[in-house]
Amino acid sequence: TVSFLSLNAQTEKGKFLLGGGSDFAFTSLSTKWKNTNGASGNYNKTRKISFTAQTGYFLFNNCMIGLEIPYSRSKEIDDKETHAYSYLTTNTSIIPLLQVYIGKSKLKPYVGAGIGFGWGNDKSFPNGTLEKVPIKISNSQIGCGISYFMNEHVGLDLGFAYVNVATSWKDNGVTSTFTDSGIGSTLEIVVVL
């Protein structure tokens, strides 16, 4: 993940954080699905773009509570499909989070975690007909990283996290769930106002 822009107040008590970014770098995920009829499988060839807005407040020095609001759009492509995509999924989530920075220097390691929920829709072409199905999402993440504040206004952040996202929907009486889980990394330039 490389963030285009992340507006960040440094880590002192009473500061406010506001940020955003775009995912287009390293993520290692495996996607599996199953339904209540006992069917299951794996998917490949997924293209994904996502944006994340983040806001937070430092309750204490080096301790931030906040919200992450990711939006994503993923397209699964099946070479045998006659349409431009097999599935097109869009979703938004709200993830309350806690992040704790360690130390008082310009180089600050941190740990953080978040758990949230979301919603969206899935479009597919079963039997050549467009079908739209609402989806529900649960998100959890835990990670660590290090931030280097080069000066009062600019910093660089490198983070790693384990992420688990479960997406489920009900269609024709059958509940299906996709679970994406794996390790991801972030590289962000932070701008402090």
General description of the model:
By secondary structure, the chain is mainly beta. 0% of the residues lie in helices and 75% in strands. The protein contains no helices and 11 strands. Strands 1-2-5-6-7-8-9-10-11 form a 9-stranded mixed barrel. β5 (46-60) and β6 (63-76) form a beta hairpin. The chain is elongated. Mean pLDDT is 78; it is low at 1-9 and 22-28.
Brief digest:
The chain has 193 residues and is mainly β. The chain is built from no helices and eleven strands.
Keywords, separated by commas or semicolons:
disordered N terminus, 193 residues, 0% helix, 9-stranded mixed β-barrel, mainly beta, elongated, 75% strand
Radius of gyration: 19 Å
Gap between N and C termini: 22 Å
- Strand order of the biggest β-sheet: 1-2-5-6-7-8-9-10-11
Number of strands: 11
Q: What string gives the helices and strands in order?
A: EEEEEEEEEEE
Overall mean confidence score, pLDDT? 78
Low-confidence stretches: 1-9, 22-28
Q: In which range does the helix fraction lie?
A: under 10%
Give the helix tally: 0
Strand content: over 45%
Report the principal-axis shape.
elongated
Given helix and strand content, the structural type is mainly beta
Main β-sheet: number of strands, strand sense, barrel status?
9 strands, mixed, barrel
